[in-house]
Amino acid sequence: MYLRRIPKLIQSYYSGYLWRVKTKEKIAYLTFDDGPTPEITDWVLNLLKQYEAKATFFLVGENVKQYPDIVHRVIDCGHFLGSHTQTHLNGWKTETKVYLKDFLQSCQTINEYSGFQTAHFRPPYGKITRAQARSILPTHEIVMMDVISGDFDLNMKGKDCFKYVKKHVRKGSIILFHDSIKAWPRLEIALPKTLEYLSEQGYRFETLPVNREVKQKLELPIA
Ligand SMILES: [Zn+2]
C-alpha cells in the first residue's frame, strides 16, 4: 500500500526534497515519469497543448536513447526534462557508487540527445538513500510529489485516479503521472479529466521551478 497524499511529517523529514511548490497562485505541476514512450508521450503532448499546459517529464536515459525524436518534441512544446536515472534503479537496493554513475549517465544521455541540461531528478520508486541524495543535491533538485494519481496501480480505475487527484490537489501541488504502457489504461482517463477539472477551477500548469544553478559541467562528489 502506498500513500496518496504524502503526510506532512514525512515531507518535513525529507525536507531537502521538493514535495510541493510554495505559491499562493493556482498553479499545478504535472509530472510524467518513465518515458519517453512511443504514442503515449505524443498523446500527452497533444493533450497538454489543448490546455496550454506545461509539464516536467522525468525520463529514463535508456528510453531517451531509443526514442530521441520524442524527446525533441517534448522540448519543442516547451516542457522541461528531468532525470529518472538511466536504467530505472531502486536507490535502496543499489550501491551508492553504482547509483550515482547511473544518474550521471542519464543526465549526460539527456544532454547528448536533446541539448537539455537537467536541473531536476526524481528517484524511481521514490527510493533514494541519504548518501545518494547528498551527492545529487548540489546540482539537482530532488523532486518528489504531494499528489500520487495511482495511474501505475493495476487495481485502480482511471476515474478513481482522477478522484484522488481532485480530492488532494492544492496550490503548488506536484502531481505524479506516468507516460508508460503500464499506466496507459488509467492515464487515458485520468489525465484529460484532471486537465479539464483544474482548468475549470482556474489552475494553470507550469514546468517545475529551477531553484538552483545547475553546474554546466556535471561533476559529482562520489564518496
Ligand atoms: Zn519510474
CATH H level, superfamily name: Glycoside hydrolase/deacetylase
| Unreliable sequence segments | none
Give the overall form: globular
- CATH topology, what is it called? TIM Barrel
Major sheet description: 6 strands, parallel
Rg (C-alpha, Å): 16 Å
**What is the number of helices?**
8
Molecules bound to protein: zinc ion
The number of strands is 8
Helix/strand structural class: alpha/beta
Strand content: 5-15%
What is the average of the pLDDT values?
A: 92
User: Percent range for helical residues?
Assistant: 25-40%
Count of the domains:
1
Report the span from N to C terminus: 34 Å
CATH architecture: Alpha-Beta Barrel
Question: Secondary-structure element sequence?
Answer: HEHEHHEHEHEEHEHE
CATH class category label: Alpha Beta
Task: Explain what you see.
- The strands form two sheets. Strands 1, 2, 3, 6, 7 and 8 form a six-stranded parallel β-sheet that branches. A two-stranded parallel sheet has the order 4-5.
- The model has no long low-confidence stretch (mean pLDDT 92).
- Helices cover 39% and strands 13% of the residues.
- The relative contact order is 0.22.
- With 223 residues, it is an alpha/beta fold.
- It has helices at 8-13, 40-50, 61-66, 68-76, 96-114, 130-136, 158-168, 184-200; strands spanning 27-33, 55-59, 80-83, 120-121, 141-142, 147-148, 174-178, 204-205.
- The chain has one domain (8-12, 20-205): Glycoside hydrolase/deacetylase (TIM Barrel), CATH 3.20.20.370.
- Helix 6 (130-136) links the parallel strand 4 and strand 5.
- It is globular, with a radius of gyration of 16 Å.
- It has eight helices and eight strands; from the N terminus they run H-E-H-E-H-H-E-H-E-H-E-E-H-E-H-E.
- Bound molecules: zinc ion.
- Residues 33-34, 84, 88, 124 line the site of zinc ion (ZN).
